[in-house]
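Hi, here's the filled form for the chain we discussed.

Project: internal
Contact: R.S.
Residues: 230
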Amino acid sequence: MSEPRVRVTGRLIVGLLIVALGVVFTLDQMGVMDSGDVLRWWAVVPLAYGLMRLTGFYCARRTGIGLVFTVGGAWLLLHSLGMLVYDPWDFWPVVLIILGVSLVAGSMARARRAGGGEDPSSTLSAFALWSGVTRKVASQDFRGGEVTAIMGGHEIDLRSAKLAEGSAVIDLFVWWGGVDLRVPEDWKVSCEALALLGGIEDASKAPAGEVRGHIILKGLVVMGGVEVKN
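And the returned structure, exactly as it came back:
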């Protein structure tokens, strides 16, 4: 019999980091070592996490998240070791460029699909800027969509919708905003979105019978919140 595979979770990583810090500071207090010599390598942690996400090693593979942590961790490590002159924070506007390009590319891809014969009513395109938007989707051929909330909020009701295929993806971009998403009780929900200083809560009930749909949440939530319920 093969041994069960250890699953790398956020709690496991934080626990190991706390143990490692405790050992380092204890040895520093005893005069065995200088904690500063060890802590200058702190960027190895996000770098390792990024590589694990890229390769799927002991965790679910997430290319986007893995790339962000790998590049960011490598840059921070090289800067900490004095191999790079520029501080990563000097290039924070690049983040805006990347986010903008991502939003534009996603919108253009959906526009091409719609132009290729896809019914526009079968996809969700919701945008809120400094405002609140309430939407009810009743499409019997629902194929997912995109939801953008910038210092605003959405209330989206999918309980009357049916999926065109077995699953659909909703791409989220939430910045200082909130999204309240209601799904049918026979749909399963999976969350693959990245939350930074924010939260994503799946309060929906697990399907009691046959699963008739699978909704997948992707994207980015920054200082905002997303709640899924029935």
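Let me know if anything looks off before we file it.
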